[in-house]
Amino acid sequence: MMDEKTMLLFDDYLQGALSAPQQKDLEQRLANEPELADAFVIFRELNGHLSHHYSEERASFAAQLRLKAQEHAPTQEAETKKTTKVIRLRPLQYFVAASIVLLFGAILWSQLAVPTYSDYQIEQPISLSIRSEGEIAFAKAEEAFNTGDYEMAVLFFNSILSNTPDNVEVQYYKAIALTQQDNYEEADNLYKALWEGSSVYKYKALWRHALSKLKQKDRASAKALLEQIPPEAEDYEQAQDLLDKL
Amino acid sequence: MGDNSIHPDQKYVDALLSNDHKIIDEIYLRFAPKVIGYVKKNSGTESQARDIVQEGILTIYDQAKVKGLTLSCPFDAYFFLICKRKWLNTLKKAGPNRVTINEEITSRDAELQAQADQTSQFEAQSNLFHTKLAALGEKCRQIIKLSFRIKSMEKVAQQLGVTYAYARKKKSLCIGKLTEMIQNSREYHMLKMEHDG
Q1: Residues of chain A with CATH 1.25.40.10
Q2: Structural domain for B196, as ranges
Q3: Does B7 lie in the same domain as B87?
Q4: Is A206 helix (H, G, I), strand (E, B) or coil?
Q5: B142 to chain A: which residues are within 8 Å by CB?
Q6: Is B131 inside any structural domain?
Q7: What is the ipTM of this complex?
Q8: Same domain, B19 and B81
Q9: Chain B residues lying within 8 Å of A68, measured CB to CB
């Protein structure tokens, strides 16, 4: 059994906070007590391990890896994209549609031509990449989100964020879940914080923020957000397309 | 390992270490298909296979960061072997009777086996640390996570509404407690035996 004093000594040793005689004394003990030496090795390795595991650098690597994995995933994503596209009308149908529109007026026309929020599907299923082992909240959050139970998803996202407030991936999906529930104020604040930041979710957040504004029928704000999406962003083309229609 | 000459494929590990994201594309294009093919041939789905690839890359990155990783064998064979072991572990957890495994003859290359063994050990240690961390009391877990995430103990103390001295002391004691839990565990002794043996 290690006493408290020894635990504090270990930490001070690793921080380089021991005086030379204290350090010598501890090293002497480690040389003579194999159990204690074992404990010290574990203590030191735990520090190295956890410090890496919870680092921002690792979180950003894992998020990047997750994005790359999605890019390299086959057809499934492409297929969902195909089905979410706005239905394109053929010329004859345009004519018919236009005739109907003439009857029903300009308001109806704008509703037919301009995509709405629901035309843009959410990428699903989500799979959270930056997760700490043993935390069931991640699995629960994914499950709730993927089955469309956004209220529950937000609860689990909150629980994750209480431990890891900087998890941008979770912030991003939480914002989407909030938008789904029409909780716009909180969602928009989250999107804004994300696109003002420099994470890999920067431009995705911008795109989703624009869609949130579209859902709120605030086209001017949606346009302003879409205009900020740069050509290197993954959603640039969709953004330009939507911008044209708005 | 007997021969410590560094394999030219060390460039892959180094690129992961320096967060060169282009290397991930290369791993996906050149090395992932073989892993995906293997998992699918052995009762896995496409998406399970892709999870294994992702975990494989993350494990290599973690090991390289925490313990250093010097490749003495081709990346291709090493990556395949650690992904294969991951998949076999997944199958084992799912139950011994649920699957049939088409066991291929693996390379007898001792360097390669030793390299993959190191990685398996690293993973086992990592799993042990996290399992025990999850079993620690909530207060301890919270302060450990916060202090490694935020790094500055002043800020941790502020967030928890305690003094700096208390936060530091508590953190040391909690890691001490975790150390004890690990040291007293059966898994630790097994790992140690493997390592020493």
Answers
A1: 58-246
A2: 136-197
A3: yes
A4: helix
A5: 163
A6: no
A7: 0.90
A8: yes
A9: 21, 24-25, 28
Tokens read off for A223: 């346009």
Confidence of residue A113 (pLDDT cuts 50, 70, 90): low
Give contacts of A 64-93 with B, CB under 8 A: 64-66, 68-69, 71-74
Query: Do A65 and B172 count as a contact with CB atoms less than 8 A apart?
Result: no
Does residue A165 or residue B86 have the better pLDDT?
Answer: B86
According to DSSP, residue A238 is labeled H
Per-residue HEC secondary structure of chain B comes to CCCCCCCCCHHHHHHHHCCCCHHHHHHHHHHHHHHHHHHHHCCCCHHHHHHHHHHHHHHHHHHHHHCCCCCCCCHHHHHHHHHHHHHHHHHHHHCCCCCCCCCCCCCCCHHHHHHHHHHHHHHHHHHHHHHHHHHCCHHHHHHHHHHHHHCCHHHHHHHHCCCHHHHHHHHHHHHHHHHHHHHCCHHHHHHHHHHHC
Q: How many beta-carbon pairs under 8 angstroms link A with B?
A: 119
Per-residue pLDDT for A194 more than 60? yes
The pLDDT of residue A229 is 87
Question: What is the rounded distance in angstroms from the CA atom of residue B56 to the CA atom of residue B24?
Answer: 11
Rounded average pLDDT over B185-191: 92
Domain check: are B115 and B163 in the same one? no
What CATH code is assigned to A58-246?
Answer: 1.25.40.10
Q: Which residues of A touch B134 (CB under 8 A)?
A: 133-135
B149, two tokens: 């995430």
Q: What is the pLDDT of residue B1?
A: 44
- Does one domain contain both B114 and B162? no
Please tell me if residue A5 touches chain B, with a CB cutoff of 8 Å: no
DSSP state of A165: T
**Does some domain include residue B149?**
yes
Residue A205: is its pLDDT beyond 50?
A: yes
Q: Whole-angstrom Cα distance, residue A145 to residue A126? A: 8
- Of A160-169, B44-53, B120-129, the least confident: A160-169
SS3 A115: coil
The mean pLDDT value of chain A amounts to: 82
Predicted TM-score (pTM) of the model is 0.62
Q: Which of B58, B31, B130, B45 is nearest to B87 (CA)?
A: B45
Which of the given ranges, A1-5, A197-201, B83-87, has the highest pLDDT on average?
Answer: B83-87
- How far is residue A158's CA from residue A200's CA, in Å, rounded to a whole number? 21
Maximum distance among all Cα pairs of chain B, rounded to whole angstroms: 59
Lowest mean pLDDT among A110-114, A152-156, B153-157: A110-114
Alpha carbons A233 and A222: distance in angstroms, whole number: 17
